[in-house]
Structure formats: structure tokens, C-alpha cells
Specification:
The protein has a domain of about 140 residues: Double-stranded beta-helix, CATH 3.60.130. About 25% of the residues lie in helices and about 25% in strands. It has seven helices and 16 strands. Bound molecules: N-oxalylglycine and manganese (II) ion.
Length: about 280
């Protein structure tokens, strides 16, 4: 196993194409420059970091996150959250009881419908079910690199219409006029070039609706074919949560979803989420 010692903490490869864990770091205090650089480098190299054994309240999570860039605010429907920059990912109802419903169960990249989609998501486990509820990640670099050269050449210049409203509609959920105005459709490259690594990555997921300039159905078929390719087991890492985990992942080169394999009407699953704002995909 690859092992690297940086200052007083360790960064360990999780064994597959994706993911590393960081042990021995306390995110509650400000990071010094070398530590911040080491985290940033490891984030670009591994795409997912599991920083173990943290206990951050909402303010501490915001302070940790802001050391890596500005944060996203909520979509309009989350604006009654306890903090304007923290989204509570929860299956609890208003009375604090497990509701049975779980969100984010299908492959997506956070806020891909925004002109500047999220660069990274930071999720901190607060309450976990006894087993299950893993977060799954698919490697969009690997998915792109493994396509035949002709396919890559065909898709390199295509652009995708990302739509919050159409994505929700596909799942049988309607959005209000205010939500529609708040999140108009946006167009992004299908194979975006990662601004920090220069590598190409497929950029799709729930909000990716059709191909610009193509018939909707033809474009949907291509997106669905590429997504089926990209989410095969060989590209997937499943994160089994441990209490105290802070997970930070790169939305520019990953899709993710939660695994609905526990009784969400019985067990609580609560995580606190901050999203770092990204740049317009190119
Ligand atoms: C999210 C998300 C997955 C999970 O918060 O953006 O997709 O495992 N969460 O809860
Ligand atoms: Mn998500």
C-alpha cells in the first residue's frame, strides 16, 4: 500500500483507482500552508479524501471548507436550512424520526446545472445507520480514457444541456416556477477538461438532459449509453462511512450517489454538506 508521511499526518491510498484516507489531522483548527497544499495535492491525485476521526460543528465545517475556496449557497428549496452555506443531508422528518425517504440515490455531479458547477463537495458524517448507506463514486477520467479513440473523437466537441427542471421531471418530480427561474438550463462540454489536471473527464449525471443541437431522444440515448459505460463496477469506489469521516470529493471528474441498502424508515442517516464553488467547465 502506498504510504506517505506529511508533517504529523498520513495519507494512505485506499487501494483502488479512487480515494485516499487521511489519518492524524484535526480539521477543527486552521490548517497551515504546507498541510493545505498536501490536502489539495492529494485531492487532485485521488479525487476522494476520507479524513478520519473528526467532530466538526457546522461553523467549524464552514471554516474548514472556506480554506479551499468560496462556498455555494442552496438551491431555493433548501433555503430554510440552519446555515446559508450548510445543507443537512438527512432522512429524518420534522419530528426527528427516520422518514424512509433518501435523496441522491441516482448518479449525479453536484450542481451540474449551474453555470459554475460545484468543484468539490465536503460531507461530514453525523449519524450513520448500523450498516449500509455507502456513498458510491464513479471515475469519469477512467470512463473517458477507456472509450475507443473514435468515440472520444466523436464526443470531444459535444455539449450537453443540463437542466434542474428536466432532470427532476425525468424522476417524476415537478419544480415550481421560482425554482425554474432560480436554476435555468445551462450548457457544458460532455468531455470537460479538468482545470487543475488538464485531463478529460465525462461530465454527465441526473441533470445532464440532452445534447445541444441534436434531437432530444438521440442525445438522451448517447448520454444514457455513456453513463451505463461510466458507472460499471470497474470505475466505482464505494465509501463505507465511519463515524467522524469528513469526505471531500472532486465533482469535476466523478459521479456519485448513495446506496439505498438500509432501512431508512428505521435508522437515521445525517450528514452535513458544504459545496465549494467551481468554474465554468471548458
Ligand atoms: C450529496 C449527495 C450522497 C450521500 O449530498 O450531494 O449526493 O451519500 N449525498 O448522502
Ligand atoms: Mn450529491
Amino acid at each position: 500500500m502506498l504510504q506517505r508521511e506529511v508533517a504529523s499526518f498520513e495519507i494512505r491510498d485506499l487501494g483502488g483507482a479512487l480515494g485516499a484516507e487521511i489519518i492524524g489531522l484535526d480539521l477543527a483548527s486552521p490548517l497551515d500552508g504546507p498541510t493545505r497544499s498536501a490536502i489539495r495535492d492529494a485531492f487532485l491525485e485521488h479525487q476522494i479524501l476520507a479524513i478520519r476521526d473528526q467532530d466538526l460543528d457546522i461553523e467549524a465545517q464552514v471554516a474548514f471548507s472556506l480554506q479551499f475556496g468560496p462556498l455555494e449557497r442552496h438551491v431555493i428549496s433548501n433555503r430554510n436550512a440552519p446555515h446559508p452555506l450548510v445543507h443537512i443531508v438527512t432522512n429524518l422528518d420534522a419530528d426527528g424520526r427516520p422518514s424512509g425517504s433518501l435523496q441522491s440515490t441516482t448518479w449525479h455531479s453536484d450542481k451540474s446545472f449551474r453555470p459554475e458547477p460545484s468543484m468539490a463537495t465536503i460531507l461530514h458524517a453525523r449519524q450513520l445507520p448500523p450498516a449500509g448507506g455507502e456513498t458510491c463514486f464513479a471515475d469519469m477520467y477512467g470512463a473517458y480514457d477507456s472509450l475507443p479513440a473514435e468515440t472520444r473523437a466523436e464526443i470531444d466537441d459535444l455539449r450537453v444541456v443540463h437542466s434542474y427542471a428536466l432532470g427532476r421531471a425525468r424522476m417524476g418530480v415537478s419544480v415550481s416556477e421560482a425554482e425554474r427561474r432560480d436554476a435555468p438550463d445551462t450548457i457544458h462540454p460532455l468531455a470537460r477538461i479538468h482545470p487543475d489536471t488538464g485531463r478529460r473527464a465525462l461530465f454527465m449525471g441526473d441533470h445532464a438532459h440532452h445534447i445541444e443541437g441534436w434531437q432530444v431522444e438521440t442525445g438522451r440515448a448517447l448520454i444514457e449509453r455513456l453513463q451505463a459505460h461510466a458507472t460499471q463496477e470497474c470505475f466505482v469506489y464505494r465509501h463505507e462511512w465511519r463515524p467522524g469521516d469528513v469526505l471531500m470529493w472532486d465533482n469535476r471528474c466523478l459521479l456519485h450517489r448513495v446506496e439505498q441498502n438500509f432501512d431508512a424508515a428505521r435508522h437515521a442517516r445525517v450528514l452535513h454538506r458544504t459545496c465549494l464553488r467551481g468554474t465554468a467547465p471548458a
